[in-house]
Amino acid sequence: MDQIIIKELELYSNHGVYKEEKVLGQKFLVSAVLYTDTKRAGKSDKIEYSVNYGEVCHRIREIMEGNTFDLIERVAETIAERLLIEFDLIRKTEVEVKKPWAPIGLPIQSVSVRIERQWHRAYIGIGSNMGDRMKYINEAVKQMKQEDDLRLICVSDLAETEPYGYTEQDKFINGCIGIDTLKTPEELLEYLQGLENNAGRERIVHWGPRTLDLDILLYDDIVIHGDHLTIPHPEIPKRSFVLEPLVQIAPYERHPVLNKTILELKDALEEKEEK
């Protein structure tokens, strides 16, 4: 991906652990690498097809001067987050906040923090088989749209399906959602579980009835095997009610463990079920 590089933007602001730093302020140097596609701007010579680095610099100044943080880690995190959220063409950014002559009681040229943040593509399975099923699903989608650090990219058709695993329960409505998010997998899991809890979900029976079910199916090409989170979702290749809607929105997304596309997994499952 192409890069627009801002190097050592000089700003004066009031960040630091010590009272004197917050009262007197000091100089900071902020650098940023903006990852974006510059080809259209390069061909057309039109600024609207690129990231306006002047606007970015002024936004960084507003963030630096409009806040008072203890840590430059917080400064860097805030700058990265706001740039990614507010400038649509930035897919990824590296931000470095440098603090010259940091007050540590020893001769030092500078201390800096450098971070890298980006939008991540994730696919979420969504379902419900209790109460007003469509209301629970629609409300969850509505809440996702209101999140600054989450962008709803696509939503599959919703279909009524038979229960899976524990079959003594009502039919589900199931579908899949594609999102871009700044949340880590663990943060995304916590957020989705919060939506489930708000919908009154109770975890009593494994694979049992639920007002709202939100599962992380894929997250970039990441592979996680943890006590509370497994990505890709281990049941993807076995569930037609996941593969069918996922094929609608991401047919050529590749399973990072099985090295097959979602379409290939769907075809393999259908062939297996026909035998």
From TrEMBL:
Family assignment from sequence similarity: Belongs to the DHNA family. In the N-terminal section; belongs to the DHNA family.
Where in this chain does the record put each 7,8-dihydro-6-hydroxymethylpterin-pyrophosphokinase domain? 206-217
Q: From which source organism is this entry?
A: Anaerostipes caccae (strain DSM 14662 / CCUG 47493 / JCM 13470 / NCIMB 13811 / L1-92)
Reply yes or no: does the keyword Transmembrane helix apply.
no
Functional summary from the UniProt entry: Catalyzes the conversion of 7,8-dihydroneopterin to 6-hydroxymethyl-7,8-dihydropterin.
Q: Which GO terms describe its molecular function?
A: 2-amino-4-hydroxy-6-hydroxymethyldihydropteridine diphosphokinase activity; ATP binding; dihydroneopterin aldolase activity; kinase activity
Per its record, how is this protein called by name?
Bifunctional folate synthesis protein
The EC number(s) given in the record are 4.1.2.25, 2.7.6.3
Q: Which InterPro entries does the protein's record reference?
A: Dihydroneopterin_aldolase, FolB_dom, GTP-CH-I_C/QueF, Hppk, Hppk_sf
Q: In which pathway does it act?
A: Cofactor biosynthesis; tetrahydrofolate biosynthesis; 2-amino-4-hydroxy-6-hydroxymethyl-7,8-dihydropteridine diphosphate from 7,8-dihydroneopterin triphosphate: step 4/4; Cofactor biosynthesis; tetrahydrofolate biosynthesis; 2-amino-4-hydroxy-6-hydroxymethyl-7,8-dihydropteridine diphosphate from 7,8-dihydroneopterin triphosphate: step 3/4
Q: Which residues form a coiled coil?
A: none
Per the record, what are the reactions this protein catalyses? 7,8-dihydroneopterin = 6-hydroxymethyl-7,8-dihydropterin + glycolaldehyde; 6-hydroxymethyl-7,8-dihydropterin + ATP = (7,8-dihydropterin-6-yl)methyl diphosphate + AMP + H(+)
PANTHER family the UniProt entry points to: 2-AMINO-4-HYDROXY-6-HYDROXYMETHYLDIHYDROPTERIDINE PYROPHOSPHOKINASE
Which gene does this sequence derive from?
folK
Q: Which GO terms describe its biological process?
A: folic acid biosynthetic process; tetrahydrofolate biosynthetic process
Keywords from the named record = ATP-binding, Folate biosynthesis, Kinase, Lyase, Nucleotide-binding, Transferase
